Each structure stands twice: as C-alpha cells, then as structure tokens.
C-alpha cells in the first residue's frame, strides 16, 4: 500500500509504503518510464548494484552470494507496469546528511570522525566488491533514523558502476584508481563541511 511522498528526483519520487499483511514499512522508489526514456541502462545498472548489496529474499536465490552492509540501503523487491518501475527499498527516516549539517551548524571532531568512519568503511566495502558509487555527496548520505546517534546510509546508486559491467574503464578510468579517487574526493567534501576554515 503506497502512502505519502518522502522525496523527489529527476526521474522518480520516493514514497512510504506498507506491506498489506505484515504492516512492515518500506520506501518505494517510483520511476517514470517515459521520463527515463533513453536512460534505461542506468536503471538496470542501479538495480543490479542494489541487488548485489541486498539480502537473499527467497529460496530461488540460494545459489547466489550476497554482500549486505549495515551502511548501504537495501533493495527488497522490484515491480513494474506499463508506465512505472517500483523499487521496494529499506526505509530510512533520518533525512539527508546535508540537511543535518545545515541544522547543526557544526560537528565535534568526535561526531565527525564517527560518521566519516562509517561512510569510508562502506565505500571500502563497495570497492572490494567491484562497485564504485560515483555520486557520493551529503545529499546521497541518509541517516537511518532521526536520533542523534543514528547510523549513516549510502543511497542513490543511479550513477554507480560495477567492475564486471564492462563500463568502468571507458567511463571512469581503471577501477583501482577510481576507487581511491572516490575516497579522496569524499574526504575533501567532509573536510569542507565539518571543518570549514575559520575567518582570519
């Protein structure tokens, strides 16, 4: 059962949804096929990457290896009709890192290091599995819950690539180099937001 709007993107919207029988809450990403025309490969790639980091859901998947991580949003199911594609995903309710940075104004070194460590461990794990996110920024890092000590979650894999997809070298250079560069860029972003230069 699809409920209220949680957020919007260029080709999609995210809504709260609820399992009719169990009452379990999820997030459903609803992608407009018409708006996505010509970029279908991007959606297929996002689903493929998300499935790589999502838990096995049924016995038919028993022969597959899954690589879940506590700081990577999981995909549970996919559906589609003539007009839209529906991705049933793990519900996170704490909002974007960007919004919390604006709200808090500043982070202590302890809080910042705790958050940065979570993200870098998740990114390192993705790289070990041959996945590069390619769009890491505070808007794509979500807090799992509104609590102050909530863990952080990596989301939005629309631009990500897998080492075995055949696209990595063409689009981004060699996988190892891209992986290291992604972490360097991420650290630069964190330093800019968490430890801005003090006025002279």
From TrEMBL:
Q: State if Nucleotide-binding is listed as a keyword.
A: yes
Cite the Protein kinase domain residue spans from the record.
1-200
Q: Which PROSITE patterns match?
A: PROTEIN_KINASE_ATP, PROTEIN_KINASE_DOM, PROTEIN_KINASE_ST
Q: Which GO terms describe its molecular function?
A: ATP binding; protein serine/threonine kinase activity
| Pfam families documented for this protein | Pkinase
Q: What is this protein called?
A: Calcium/calmodulin-dependent protein kinase type 1
What is the species listed in this Swiss-Prot or TrEMBL entry? Culex quinquefasciatus
Where does the chain bind ATP? 29
Q: What family does the database annotate? A: Belongs to the protein kinase superfamily.
